[in-house]
Amino acid sequence: MSESDKIEAAVERAEEAAEGHQPDPAAPRLLRDALGRFATGVTVITAREEETGAPIGITVNSFASVSLDPALVLWSAARSSLRHRHFATAPAFAIHVLGADQADLAKRFSSSSGPGFEGLDTRLNAQAVPLLSGCLARFECETEATHEGGDHTIIIGRVARFTLAQEGAPLCFFGGRFGGFAPSA
């Protein structure tokens, strides 16, 4: 390739990049990196396994408020997760908003091979959903609806009860890493 062809190709690539990218399911890394530029909070969702009733948890950053009246929240469960079916069919679940000092708790539930509930101080609510202590906020929910959303299931919960800490910094997730939040002056 001649030097002028190389320059022309480089200019063409730069122009294409300036116009943006199209999502490519065969190569999702670039889209994941772009989505990772949005800082989110970190939660652990807990419920009961479908068949055995054993406690189950998963770390999630796809949590959002939907409505105050009625009190509705949502989160998205990856269909590729081995835990997906349990959460997609759970009649009740709890969302635990993690504080800056709870990255280890998030890591416990970020893969199916993590230690999960082993050694944790938990209690069960009226629906037998495991509740974690020491979180910034906790929302005990009954499943209101589920919706297919591509490779995820969007789970909407009706908040039956919630708790909140009076203070504390959030655990954040940005660019594939946990971190903190420093408020501006």
Automatic annotation (TrEMBL):
Keywords: Oxidoreductase
The Flavin reductase like domain, residue ranges: 35-180
EC annotation from Swiss-Prot or TrEMBL: 1.-.-.-
InterPro entries for this protein: Flavin_Rdtase-like_dom, NADH-dep_flavin_reductase, Split_barrel_FMN-bd
Gene3D superfamilies listed in its UniProt record: Electron Transport, Fmn-binding Protein, Chain A
Superkingdom of origin organism: Bacteria
Claim: RNA-binding is one of the keywords in the record: no
Segments for region (Disordered): 1-26
Keyword Oxidoreductase assigned: yes
Biased composition (Basic and acidic residues): 1-22
Annotated SMART domains: Flavin_Reduct (SM00903)
Pfam families hit by this protein: Flavin_Reduct (PF01613)
GO molecular function, one term: oxidoreductase activity
PANTHER family in UniProt: FLAVIN REDUCTASE, FMN REDUCTASE (NADH) RUTF
Record's protein name: Flavin reductase family protein
Organism for this UniProt entry: Rhodobacter lacus
